[in-house]
């Protein structure tokens, strides 16, 4: 009997394969929640099905929204139509079962930013009580091209089609069955698509965490509904800091150099963030590479603390956590140790050689802060602009420290694709001459690399001076464009995601930056593997000041690798919003972003028959069966009589 | 990652009370359905001595005592007993020719029917209100629920 069942199942799966064509390369839009709202997309628990229709012209839009005879429709949206007005009309219509957006460069508008016009406006430093005339982007609108699509709540699934071959399959199915012939409606059977992306969490983080809590306490089958966004910040310093001594570090005055490590877009885990994030990371890495040897030979009086903050797109998760730890004396330094701060914002699209330095006008009303900042800048300048969205704002919320934010823009972003899927290598003007292999591309000096190297040199020299170093050493500080290796970052995704992952505890980008820093600032030791993993047993090694990495080393000629132990003062610090530590899920001061959980996300296409046939066929089958039963019941009577 | 988050004693008590209130709803429904049927079966065996429901061969005094026991049993928050009472003895009370015990049986049936209608009204009202307003009640709605649907408010 088991064999029979197995045979039946094989039969049933092969029948299923004949009906459905599964689409593998799709990217969903998922639901995110914060203290008060839910954003993103939701499908019904058994998927949303609709008849395919390709949206290429205005008449297609009318067909979908009002005149088409086979609603609901599953819209295949050309790139040009993925904007706010069309998506809002879809949202308000009941005839749309879901949207699949074709992601390509053909037909892409001049600008597309699904982020808000004023990023992180409620968790920055400007509020009613601090610079109220600058709050909520009253002073400067930083992202005027933002259409806010990422922060809308859609009740149908929205998927992205990135694979050209798959899009062709969909188009073919549409052209074969669904296309209008001479203006008349297409006939059944029609090509349909079903999208599954049912999200478990609803309403807001408070509700979601409460229900998770209830489930854990009282249910037989506990289910977690959502997870807080979390990952790690990466930090290092020119002079090692004792990691086990928390709180105020005696005799340490620190200059912080910071940038962000994350990005986002409308879709899940897609965030190329070239101009938004990669430019900053690469510049800071080049700065460290340029500055580190000089600080070891001729150490400046102050320590320089380099930090890469994760989760800044979602209300400053990483920087708020670090500031919180500093205030609670739970970090290697505290706010009293901080002398000043220099942050690298978006620096990739400099037109010519201009670079803008932003400072906070409110704190500069304080004379001592003002003189520090002017010294940092090297000259006095007008200060009526507020700070752009930056991690420095979270430090200012805690203490009025002098600081600057470097950027390639003066009033609003030059990045026309801020926090979108199109903020990629092309947006950063990273182009290679044709015919280069990927390995050659890795070492090729692009114009963008040269530009970022210039910025890195400037930042490194300013940091050295700010840390009290002598001017005569400045000429030795130069960033090498070859080290400014952008291309390896341009294929990564910078979305922060959730805690522990399959391939290690931290996000791949975080790990990558950590290891690059270890490479740039660390020293090779001749410890064995077991010694490298337990260095406290050796008296010459200090686990409090350094971290030890066992790395596999470069591949040699015959393909073998010789691993070795690297000692560096690079560390990870947890980047999860303090709201989750304090259990204040409705907090207005800290980030409360969580990501919903789901069971399965998939898409498939198949042919559908008309509604009448769907209803009638089972009824017909029922009718024939009952007739048969009646006949067989009456046979006794018929034959006996 | 499942972690039990510690909460204060006061909040714990409040949660416990609301939880018990919610569980009481389920207890009622489980009691009503399962115990009701159980009593029905047991009483049939106990009172009539056999497991078939045959009122025809029962003497009238036994019918009356059975009716009374079901009527009294229904007051223990078991409206199903009243339903069974009404359905079982309806013919006896109203459609059979008169006998001595019939008026009493009639009154028991009428009172059982009244109690049943009252229960149905109360339960229907409460269920309608709960289903409609649960999402709006936020915290209280969640504590009163046994299973909360995923993905919808």
Write the layout of secondary structure elements.
The complex is a heterodimer of chains A (641) and B (153).
Chain A: H1 2-19, E1 21-23, E2 26-28, E3 32-33, E4 38-41, E5 48-55, H2 58-67, E6 73-77, H3 84-92, E7 96-102, E8 153-154, E9 158-161, H4 164-178, E10 190-199, H5 205-218, E11 226-228, E12 230-237, E13 254-260, H6 274-297, E14 303-309, H7 317-327, E15 338-344, E16 356-358, H8 367-377, H9 392-398, E17 403-407, H10 438-443, H11 447-466, H12 508-521, E18 523-525, H13 529-533, E19 547-551, E20 564-568, E21 571-576, H14 578-581, E22 594-596, E23 598-608, H15 611-640
Parallel strand pairs in A: 4-8, 5-6, 6-7, 7-9, 13-14, 13-15, 15-17
Antiparallel strand pairs in A: 1-23, 2-9, 3-4, 3-22, 5-10, 10-23, 11-22, 12-14, 12-21, 16-17, 18-20, 19-20
Chain B: H1 9-48, H2 60-73, H3 79-95, H4 102-133, H5 139-144
Helix pairs in contact in B: 1-3, 2-3, 2-4, 3-4
Biggest beta sheet summary of chain B: none
Helix amount of chain B:
over 70%
Quaternary structure state of the chains depicted: heterodimer
C-alpha geometry of chain B: elongated
- Give average pLDDT of chain A, whole number: 88
Q: Biggest chain pair contact, residues each?
A: A-B, 26 and 17 residues
Largest sheet of chain A: 8 strands, mixed
What is the end-to-end distance of chain A? 40 Å
String of helices and strands of chain B: HHHHH
Structural class of chain B: mainly alpha
> How much beta of chain A, percentage-wise?
15-25%
Whole-angstrom Rg of chain A? 29 Å
Structural category of chain A: alpha/beta
Question: Which range does the strand content of chain B fall in?
Answer: under 5%
DSSP, total strands of chain B: 0
User: What's the number of helices of chain B?
Assistant: 5
**Number of distinct beta strands of chain A:** 23
Stretches of chain A where pLDDT is under 50 for at least 5 consecutive residues are none
Radius of gyration of chain B: 21 Å
Could you give the order of strands across the largest sheet of chain A?
A: 1-23-10-5-6-7-9-2
């Amino acid at each position: 009997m088991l064999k029979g069942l197995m045979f039946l199942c094989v039969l049933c799966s092969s029948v299923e394969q004949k009906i459905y064509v599964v689409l593998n390369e799709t990217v969903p839009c998922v639901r995110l929640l914060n203290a008060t709202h839910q954003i993103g997309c939701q499908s019904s628990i058994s998927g949303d099905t609709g008849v395919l229709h390709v949206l290429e012209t205005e008449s297609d839009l009318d067909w979908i929204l009002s005149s088409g005879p086979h609603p609901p429709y599953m819209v295949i949206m050309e790139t040009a139509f993925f904007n706010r007005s069309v998506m809002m009309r879809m949202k308000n219509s009941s005839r749309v079962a879901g949207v699949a957006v074709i992601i390509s460069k053909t037909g892409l508008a001049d600008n597309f930013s699904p982020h808000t016009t004023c990023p992180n406006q409620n968790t920055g430093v400007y509020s009613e009580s601090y610079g109220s005339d600058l709050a909520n982007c009253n002073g400067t609108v930083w992202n005027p091209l933002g259409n806010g699509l990422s922060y809308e709540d859609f009740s149908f699934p929205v998927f992205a089609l990135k694979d050209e071959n798959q899009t062709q399959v969909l188009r073919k199915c549409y052209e074969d069955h669904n296309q209008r012939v001479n203006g008349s409606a297409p006939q059944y059977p029609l090509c349909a698509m079903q999208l599954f992306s049912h999200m478990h969490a609803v309403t807001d983080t408070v509700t979601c965490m409460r229900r998770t809590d209830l489930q854990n306490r009282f249910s037989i089958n506990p289910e977690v509904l959502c997870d807080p966004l979390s990952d790690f910040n990466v930090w290092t310093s020119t002079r090692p800091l004792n990691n086990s001594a928390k709180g105020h570090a005696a005799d340490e005055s620190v200059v912080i150099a910071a940038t962000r490590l994350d990005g986002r877009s409308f879709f899940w885990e897609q965030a190329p963030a070239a101009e938004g994030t990669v430019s900053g990371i690469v510049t800071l890495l080049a700065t460290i590479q340029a500055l580190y040897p000089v600080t070891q030979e001729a150490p400046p009086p102050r320590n320089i603390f380099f930090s890469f903050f994760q989760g800044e797109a979602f209300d400053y998760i990483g920087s708020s956590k670090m500031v919180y730890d500093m205030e609670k004396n739970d970090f290697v330094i505290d706010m009293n140790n901080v002398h000043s701060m220099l942050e690298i914002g978006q620096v990739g699209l400099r037109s010519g050689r201009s670079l803008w330095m932003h400072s906070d006008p409110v704190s500069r009303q304080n004379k001592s802060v003002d003189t520090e900042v002017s010294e940092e800048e090297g000259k006095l300048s007008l200060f009526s602009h507020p700070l752009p969205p930056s991690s420095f704002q979270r430090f200012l919320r805690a203490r009025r420290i002098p600081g600057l934010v470097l950027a390639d823009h003066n009033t609003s972003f030059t990045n026309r694709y801020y926090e979108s899927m199109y903020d990629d290598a092309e947006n950063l003007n990273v182009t290679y001459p044709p015919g280069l292999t990927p390995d050659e591309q890795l070492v090729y000096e692009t114009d963008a690399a040269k530009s970022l190297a210039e910025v890195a040199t400037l930042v490194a020299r300013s940091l050295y001076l700010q840390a009290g170093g002598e001017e005569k050493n400045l000429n030795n500080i130069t960033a090498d464009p070859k080290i400014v290796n952008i291309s390896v970052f341009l294929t990564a995704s910078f979305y922060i995601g959730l805690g522990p992952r399959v391939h290690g505890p931290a996000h791949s980008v975080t790990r990558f930056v950590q290891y690059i820093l270890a490479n740039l600032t660390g020293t090779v030791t001749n410890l064995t593997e077991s010694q490298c993993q337990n260095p406290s047993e050796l008296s010459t090694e200090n686990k409090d000041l350094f971290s030890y990495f066992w790395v596999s080393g470069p591949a040699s000629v015959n393909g073998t690798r010789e691993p070795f132990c690297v000692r560096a003062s690079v560390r990870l610090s947890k980047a999860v919003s303090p709201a989750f530590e304090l259990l204040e899920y409705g907090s207005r001061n800290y980030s409360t972003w969580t990501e919903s959980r789901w069971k399965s996300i998939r898409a498939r296409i198949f042919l559908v028959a008309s509604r009448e046939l769907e209803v009638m066929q089972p009824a017909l089958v029922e009718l024939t069966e009952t007739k048969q039963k009646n006949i067989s019941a009456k046979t006794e009577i018929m034959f006996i009589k | 990652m499942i972690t039990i988050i510690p909460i204060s004693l006061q909040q714990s008590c409040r949660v416990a009370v609301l939880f018990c209130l919610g569980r009481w709803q389920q207890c009622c429904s489980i009691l009503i359905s399962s115990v009701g049927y159980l009593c029905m079966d047991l009483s049939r065996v106990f009172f009539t001595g056999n497991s078939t429901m045959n009122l025809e061969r029962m003497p009238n005094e036994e019918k009356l005592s059975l009716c009374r026991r079901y009527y009294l049993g229904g007051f223990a928050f078991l409206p199903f007993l009243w339903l069974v009472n009404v359905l079982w003895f309806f013919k006896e009370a109203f459609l059979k020719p008169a006998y001595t015990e019939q008026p009493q049986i009639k009154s028991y049936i009428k009172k059982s029917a009244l109690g049943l209608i009252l229960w149905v009204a109360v339960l229907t009202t409460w269920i309608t209100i709960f289903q409609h307003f649960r999402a709006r009640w936020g915290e209280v709605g969640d504590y009163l629920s046994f299973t909360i649907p995923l993905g919808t408010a």
